[in-house]
Queue: 3 jobs
Job 1
Amino acid sequence: MALPYLFVAPAVVLTAAFSLLPLGMLAYRSLFSGGVFATTLQYVGLQNYSNAFSEGGAHALEVTGIYTAGFVVFAMGLGLGVALLLNVNLPGLSRLRAPFIIPVVVPTVATALIWGNLFAPDFGFINRTLAALGLPEANFTSSPSLALLMILTFGVWQFFGENVILYLASLKTLPVDVIEAASVDGAGPWARFRYMRWPLLRRSNVLIWVITTLTGLQTFTQIYVLTNGGPNGATTTALYYIYDQGFVQFNTGLADAMGVILFLISLCVTIVQVALIGRGSRSD
Amino acid sequence: MTSATSAIAPQELVKASRNGPRAKRRRRSRLLSRTAVYAAIAVAVVVVAFPLIWMLLAAVKTNAQILDLRASLWPDQFHWGNIEQAWRSAPFGRWFLNTVIFAGAATLGQILTGMLAGYAFAMYDFPGKRVLFYVLLSGLMVPFATVIVPVVQILGDLHWLNTYQGLIVPNIASALGAFLFRQFFLGAPVELGEAAHMDGASELRIFWNVYAPLGRPIIAAFGIIAFLQNWNNFLFPLIVVNTTSMEVLSQGLSVFQTQFSTNYNLMMAAALIVVAPVLLVAVLAQRHIVEGITLGAVQ
């Protein structure tokens, strides 16, 4: 019967054509030199990889690591914190989850532009506040560490609402009666969290960690809008490096080599997810 | 300990705990902690909403007021004309149309291909099923961002750069969508299809008339998230399209920014034009969005 094949064909063929074929091309072409649309390629072995490392790629991976680590800590911490507060059984609280979704769903270009104005030197709201507090002006676009801090602040603001929703959903699945019983037995809020909710959230934590890490690794829009990877490469992440080398500098080989590296990092994150969730479900 | 407390009737215990001094202290501390919860949430909501409120206010100010350090954050006068001026300064109408075509077609495609594949993987057994399923599974493992260079090479070979099909076709298949629909149809009752089969309905009819309508909740939740993701997609249009008339809203806004880099009020008015419709959708479809986010995380 041909029907099942017809049904799965569009999804499978398009996935093969626009995910797997490009991945193969990426791995293959990372071993050659030649532009995006070059017809003649020259085999150079691992030259692109070593060139990528010496020409800013190592720094881009370092920036990616720092950014993603900060992004994961703050987006998960704030997500869980706000979710725990919203999960308290008080009137009206459940309606207040709505504002946290908004930054996640409105166009990132627009919100990044807004934050660009908030972070602006002189007239920007943040510098105004600093001035009012008698603190010196902070130039978020010319200082390398402040530029990364700006990108990180925006990234956390934009994304942590998704973690609020995910943590709220998993908190709702925890056995309420058991936790209430502990409360009657005199367990305070911290003890109830540390010894009852936290262990039960393990699977959710892994899942949310994976989603947050992959999102952090794929941060692009705010870097493009706010810093263009600068100053001096301070906010050039691996993905921004791929874009910059591939479509601005036209060093396709370097972009492809970094693409392979970023793919392998993402793959490790996904494998950790599968492994941990698999282990968790066996012991359940 | 248990034997000592069991001597007192439970009602007595409750009464004692309601009126004792310890209970009063506990009640007061509960009131305090309630207030603390509300206060903490209020602070979080303000921090989250502030940038958008700032945009709204700046969009209707004069540029001079934005730049004046002594001016208040509240507009001295509301210059609603800023929004009209921003709209006329760039082809926003065209960008809206492009975004509707791109996001609309890609989302419809994702729902349809996901539903068809998910249904077939859930309902039928056929040779090669496992292999085809693994192809789809591996699609989930390849973040699109890592393969942008070869994707542009493929689209270039097809002469699809700067076209609608170039924007739409690579985004039609969603491995995640296929998985969600497969999961859903695995849980759908088999008897419905069997009964329809007895009545002489064709396989295609059974899918379209019996099972597809059951999938409505998933279509709504997955569809709204997919639509918002496509609508907000920035990196992909950026590398596929480079003429003003083919650009989508996000891209157009970033060009607008470079052209009006010192007209902060117009910049914010343009941001408002781009944000407002999505904000409206987000408020109206809040429940589906929450469902969609949660659904997408459970793999």
Job 2
Amino acid sequence: MRALVGVLGLVLGILVGACLVLANPLAWIRGLPPLSAEIAPAKAYRWEEYRGIEAGAAALLGVGRQDRELALMDPALRHLGIGIVVLPAGEGAPAALAVKMSATAEENSLWRAQLGRDDYWNIFWPGEGSVFASSYSNYWAVMRDGLFSALRGRDQGSVATAYPVSAPSPVGNTAGVAGASGRYAGFTGEIREVLYPAAPDAKRADPDWAIAIKANPPPVVTR
Amino acid sequence: MKRLFVITFLAGLFVVALTTTFWPLPTHVRYRSLITVLPDGGRQEDFIIRWPEDRIRLPSEDPTSLPATASIGVAVLEDSAGRRTSAELFRLRDTDDNVIGVASRLAGTGGAIADPGRSASNWLLVIPSRGALFLAQTDVLDTTVRGEITAAGAVAVAPAQTAAFWADRQRLRVTATAPATTGAATTGKVLRGTSEFAGLEGSFTETWDLDEVNADGSTRGRIQLTTFTAAGT
């Protein structure tokens, strides 16, 4: 009986402790506000053609095995994903070709509810111009809800339909958009990303994504 | 019994606290940065890419079914006006030949981007342990990858990977010495960096060096990116 009570106390302590860590309020207050849909319409995309790590909690926690077909085996590239994305045309903008690279952030901290990746984008609109963008995406809420959903027997009620993953970088102000060429040269702005988790009965496990970019031309200098 | 429950409950909380504190979150392997400090200030760092071996294959590609001159890890997007954009993915090496990161090269033609017969290109260099560098330039010629239809299906052909491109040269400086007259693209400019590269600005040059022409018409060679940076104002 004493052993049973001891084990029960320990298990309950671990469960309560894990729930307290997962329910860290910092995860709720650290997001970035969304950009106005009128100024920066979101472009939905699928990140299917990628190599390296997936955007799941296991890869961010450093557990689980990587898909050998996708993995980049060089030691320096073990915690990185790279892929090509086609952003669809719409809202007055043509289709764009883009490259997205994501590296697991070394500043991640379980105490601070930071489980994220540093994302880098280069987006090129044929005949128009190109921009670079960098941002930090925090997947803490995605991991938390996924875990609670698993504990409740894959209850989809615990999982949101969309996660605005863009968050302030733990290392300071390295996020933003930098215009590179064509009519976007010199532009500066902001970037936001939203993750849409795959439904449990979906054929493909990869999530859907959306990206929104707001970029302003450089200020006019008068002589 | 109640006391035992409380003690073990607290022990459970302690286990979680220890796990949360000491969980081995992933970190990136870092190689020594090979930087040269320039006499007049600033710093020079060279990055190397070898083709074709440093191209990163996309999951849907099967290199064994492609012609020798076809490039892997490439996407091409062309609009109805013939304005083309191509994206290429590479591993990135330091001058000691260590793979230290990844790089992408996006190049585009036409419209507001570049003069006829030329392209503008962007390099995104990501070294996971150090951060990212954003580079932009005008090219001396059209360096975009072309999509071609062959017996093996639609393939991407990078100019430098074909023997014909090297008929009259062994080396090519891709970075134009003057900006394009069309649009506002500057040439050989380090636009911005993140993390360890944050606050750095400067210039760069891209050079292609041919190592070997193979009997099947394909080539081997090196892309050298030489960056000159200094802390921005």
Job 3
Amino acid sequence: MRRQNLLLAVSIVIAALLAFTQLGFDSANAQSAPAGDSEAPAEPAADVEPAAPAAPAADPPTQPAAGDSKAEAAAVRLMCEAALKKDPAWRAELRNSMRAAVHQEDANLMMTNKKHVVAAYTVLWVLTVVFLVLMFGRQRKLTAEIASLRDDLEKAIKDD
Amino acid sequence: MRRNLFYAAAALCIAGFAYTQYLIFYAAPIDRLLMFNQKIFYYHVPSAFVLFSAVITCGISSVLYVKGRQGKHDDIASAAGELAVLFGAIMLITGSIWGKAAWGKWWQWDARLTTSLLLWMVMVGYVLVRKYGGPGSERLAAGLAVFGLADVPLIYFSVRIWRTLHPKTSVVPGLQGPMRTAFWLSVILWLVFFVLMLATRVGTARAERLLEETRERGLDEGLFE
């Protein structure tokens, strides 16, 4: 009886720990993903934006209205590329500042639906523990019934 | 000796589950297509394996009981039937949550999902008949268990027979590295856990039956009031 109680208590603690591990994992991942950006916290997001107009560089500057600005952008881009080639330290700095944002984007994509995973594992452990608790409760009831039967039997023998 | 073996296996399960959690969440890589929600796979599929084991045990024991009318077979069938309900519920709920994450829907009337739900409902029926069917309900319940047993191959081959949304049976053989280790370790542990729970439940069912028989005999002989 004491062993059963002990086993029941241990199983509940283990289930709680397992559920806690998953929740802990959930928050740990939320923290670990941006860990790399400790040197450059919010800047990368802003850095990524200016990279967007890169596509028009391929367009020939033949269009009349937007053509001027596009050609200007392409010229600026060429200047920037040349400057980056000349200064490897700046290039490395720029790359490092963007790395955190790229990492964060990838991490967010990878961790999509983490709530579903936590929910599935929680349901699984809760159902298992509830079943175990019911099973041990039934055994306890049975032990009590056996004890009552034994008493009835002893009483019957005494009466005889 | 037997008891020590039982406790050793229980301790192994507890340690093993903790280790599989580590393998699943830290060692196994994140799937490139299914992303993080693929982690549900490591316990969803083993719960299906255990469900099949429970239904097969229940079905075979029921057939043996109907043939030989031995109480021990009925005890095993009754215990396995309850475990089939538990693991069927785990499989359906985890699968449904995974479906919501992967397909955007909680449920699809896909062949595998529908046949799995049917099996679970048959097993729920089995347990209800056993509990509330009164004397002689064991044979009716045995019939339900055999019906459930017949559904197992249908579920397994449903993804090959029909065009389904559910992944095919070729996913498991294709696993590699830490994914394979985490998966097969989970399967082994859940099967050991199933055997332990079955042994405990069979013991309880047997004790309940013997108690009932003893009480009835005592009443017949005028020992008890």
